[in-house]
Description:
The protein is of the alpha/beta class and 234 residues long. The protein has helices at 8-12, 34-43, 63-67, 83-90, 101-113, 176-181, and strands spanning 4-5, 21-24, 48-51, 71-76, 95-98, 117-120, 134-137, 140-146, 150-161, 166-167, 183-194, 213-216. Helix 4 links the parallel strand 4 (71-76) and strand 5 (95-98). The chain is 20% helix and 28% strand. It has one domain: Glutaconate Coenzyme A-transferase, CATH 3.40.1080. It has 6 helices and 12 strands. Strands 1, 2, 3, 4, 5, 9, 10, 11 and 12 form a 9-stranded mixed sheet that branches. Strands 6-8-7 form a 3-stranded antiparallel sheet.
Amino acid sequence: MNKVFPDAKSALADVLAEGMTVMSGGFGLCGTPQALIDAIHELGTRNLTVISNNAGIDGAGLGILLETRQIKKMVASYVGENKLFEKQYLSGELELEFNPQGTLAERIRAGGAGIPAFYTKTGVGTIIADGKDLREFDGETYVMERWLRADVAIIHAWKADKEGNLIFRKTARNFNPMMAAAAKTTVVQVEHLVEVGELDADGIHTPGIFVQRIVHVPDIAKPIEKTTVRAKAA
């Protein structure tokens, strides 16, 4: 089966649907599947529930889908750096399910591992635990959290072969591998695409069984969220 598609739009056109749940990799703008986000923007699919650490920034990352009101609900751990996100949430236009960052990561990992629920201390005694099952283990109280799964995951990888075996680069790995395993259909944009057999098997982070579609984007832009430079030497 050929998993390689000529562009992001064709890779997503027949898998997106109104009201579906989409996982989007990335942390800030690092490891964000911008070409696939742009394709969702062009396709105009609406009423989406998006699971992602955050929603990018104004005008980049998932921020462009907020501009067009394509996102109905965000499941996230951070809303900073995006004034439109804040505005839509405070006005009641955007639903938001807040998660501690580690809990969000584990909920996604659990979804990929087939674990429907787990217990954690994080959030006990706060509004995070309101309405959730609490249990005591070894004298400590824990709150039950449910897995997260999606209809489609859009992710970014540094290198892949044509079977969808993936290698991520440094911190751009972030949420991408666990999201690949937690969705019915995973679409990946990759910077470097090679033939099957060219990757070192011991270096593969995500095996191709979790990947259904591949888009080669060798010249993808990588905007910097906040530019920090050293003071000029005297």
